[in-house]
Amino acid sequence: MLWIRLFLSCLLFESVTGSLAWAAIECRKRLQGEKDYFFALAVRKAALLLYAVPVTFLYAYLSRIGFRPLRGYYVIKGEFVSGMVPGMYPFFGVLGILWAGGVLAALYRNLRKSTTLARRLKKNREVRCKDSRKVFREYQERFPKARIFLYENRTLCSPVSVRRGRKYMILLPEKTYTEKELRMILEHEVNHIISGDLRWRMFGVVMMCVHWFNPVVYRQFQDLIYYQEVMCDLQSSMEKPWYTRKEYAMLLAVQADPDLYLPHASAFAQKNKDMIRRIEIMVKIKQFERTKNRVIAAGCACLLGISLIPSVAFASAGAKLQEAWLHAGETEIEDEPQDWGDESLEEHGMDDGSVVEIYASDAGNTNKRSSVFVETVSKKTRLILNTVQMSKGDTIIISAKCSDKNITYRIGIKNNDTNTYTWIEGEGDLTHTFTIKTSGSYSTYVEDCSSQSMDVEGSVVY
Q: CA 187 to CA 239: how far, in whole Å?
């Protein structure tokens, strides 16, 4: 259950980070307008990546783990990292079930779309027109590493590019295209393939499945698709020797709206209002210029700074709230009366030789019915305190206190006749009543389970 709590916290923190990045992009768009569409697409990809990179979660997690250089060990400073109380189990259990149910529902919807696409791909057949095959071979020669194939499909009413594994397919409806129209379509779809747009769309689908509870991620995915199409239009229509921008816009305008949003696919046509906006952008942009990489890097860095500062504060506040909940639950547990004789806390075993066993200076005194000890116990060492003859039904009460709350240690008894051990394990203050099951010689002990020595004090009452 601890891992469910941490995983859901990570999802929430990263969902907030991605949403803040999208909000920053939208504010810039409304204040300054959109002029550089290459830059606009790049920052939207960076914003979508923030849903998968756990920056804020790692900050909240790692800031609660300290390192002591003198002794060389790690110390958990916050309950957020490793704490759980009973009150959290039903809450995070229900949240985990709801999240898993949403993921399964989203996967089912995408599986149905993938099945629809697979059925359509079965209708593919080789392009019959020799002129179309000749034009397509030019693109295959220009991009030999892209593994592009051209097919006809009678179930389509608009050109589509599809990614299946490492293979890319450009699908044409079963109708006759002029050489000019075919070049427009191939330029557009090949630009999608070369730019890796289909991989980014699959990444967006995965993020929508994982963060299905966040409505902003759906809007971001729609923006990603829209700006991918705008970029392809600008790259495909500017300064081409085979056709003009006006002819390209006319081809866009007559495309149907097949609503072909499917995983692994990119349709040439979109909704009518989006097609109009794409044509208007082509009319306004006189010349396409690719933004320099350093400008894109600077813009993405600014976006990260703007979005991460408030999201880090949110993650820290969320971690502190959970720690407060954990602390309140632990306080309630501590206020309950402790049953020192609860045998369900006891563990039993034999000596496996991994622990060094030594005797305290007064360990040989078998007549004492009580004793007080103040000792320093080395790492991986069992310190024998007293050895006393006991009868069945007798009890031994051991109380111990370790000054370092982060050290795990044991208090227990050893049956010298059978060489078996009974103990309880914990940190800080430990008190337990051991009930003797069989008569014999018994030794009491304190055992250091950590990788460093500890100072311990306490008492034994027989």
A: 12
Cβ(217)–Cβ(51) under 8 Å?
A: yes
pLDDT of residue 70: 47
Q: How many CA atoms lie within 13 A of 457 on its CB side?
A: 2
Number of H-type helices and E-type strands within the chain: 12, 17
State in Å, rounded, how far the first CA of the chain is from the last one. 40
Rounded (10°) angle between helices 55-62 and 293-335? 40
- Token readout for 181 is 């129209």
Q: By CB neighbour count within 10 A (0-12 exposed, 13-18 middle, 19+ buried), where does 231 fall?
A: buried
Cα(327)–Cα(325) distance, integer angstroms: 5
Query: Helix H segments across 147-214?
Result: 179-194, 197-210
In whole angstroms, give the CA distance from residue 150 to residue 168: 9
Q: Which residue bears the tokens 């991009």?
A: 143
- Mind listing the pLDDT tens digit for each residue in 401-443? 988 888 889 999 999 888 899 999 988 888 898 899 899 899 9
| Cα distances (angstroms) measured from residue 301 to each of 43, 208, 232 | 9, 24, 25
- CA–CA dist 184, 135 (Å, integer): 11
User: Confidence band (pLDDT; 50, 70, 90) for 10?
Assistant: very high
Question: Beta strands 395-402 and 429-435: pairing type?
Answer: antiparallel
352-356 contacts, C-beta under 8 A, 24 or more apart: 354/380, 355/380, 355/381, 355/382, 355/447, 356/380, 356/381, 356/382
